[in-house]
Amino acid sequence: MKTAYKFRMYPNRQQEAKLEQTRDTCRRLYNLALADRKAAYEIDGISRSYEDQAAMLVAEKREGNFKDVFSQVLQDVLRRLDKAFKAFFRRVKAGEKPGYPRFKGAGWYKSFTYPQVGFKLEGSKLTLSKIGTIRIFKHREVEGKIKTCTIKKDLLGYWYAVLVTEIEDVPAIEAKTAIGVDVGLKNLITTSTGDTIEYPRYYIQAEKKLAAAQRSLSRKKKGSANRQKAKAKVAKISNRIQNLRDEFLQQVSRKLVDSADIIAFENLNVNGMLKNHHLAKHIQDHAWGKLIQFTKSKAVKAGKVVELVDARYTSQKCSQCGIMVPKTLAERTHACPKCGLEIDRDLNASLNIRTLGLRGRAYGEIANNRHSVK
Q1: How many separate helices (H) and strands (E) can be counted in the chain?
Q2: pLDDT tens-digit readout, 244-260
């Protein structure tokens, strides 16, 4: 099981200069490798592989080029480009909009990674090869073996270290309790136990201030100091929205994991739902996908289970007798004409989600048992 830890870094001026130099060298290498792949195919009909370009990088290093950056960081740049091309060809094959890999302009290469070695964490100090030992704000202990270290700079100019660790999987506990969770816009969640949590709508609260900052940014001359200040102001507002949202969703996901051994959600097609332009900003603000992601992460660490169930008809089906009771989105009460059940629409949906989650869990256990017998 992998876990990511994000820590703020506090480099001095010399270290920050080296961080910037490393990031820019990685950007230049990415662009050179992309240009090489493009030219090799267009001129000679050759498809470059990661291995081809890694061998070329070794030759460049022997000539004294890229000597100021740790070798595995440079190799990771070539792996990123290789992944971008593999994703491009996969989309072409699937008939999707392909999106050919792009050259990275200044400021568009966001991070660089130490994939295996070249870094060491000791207390609140992070040592990076070719850069030095940098103080970090280590707000929690790191569990497991650190596998990778990614260095990022945000739009406000703050540097962060993202450490990905690997720890042993926690054995699954015996499931005794289960809840269904219906996500929505009226309430962020409604659970099958009848609990509801309303979302504070952080984006909506800051929307006017953010729009004003974005208008101000659009009026500033490109490359000017005032534009940089306006850009930082937009980033500051956006970061605050994201931080408040993430903190709130972390708290909600913790409550869900603490409340049951099996947590069932609808398997929603959020990207499809975002095509509704009237609701898109509200759906993005509520961040249902991130809530499910946070809940999954905490459930795995606790030996618990998150089940994703088919979202079709969970609001229309009666949770007591099973017949379909058609409703418009405006109807907020489920009133069954057959069994007489009359409850909140979202509560009815969460009860159906719980039933589907338990059914899916049971099918999964039966399939696992059959596989183990074979």
Answers
A1: 9, 14
A2: 999 999 999 999 999 99
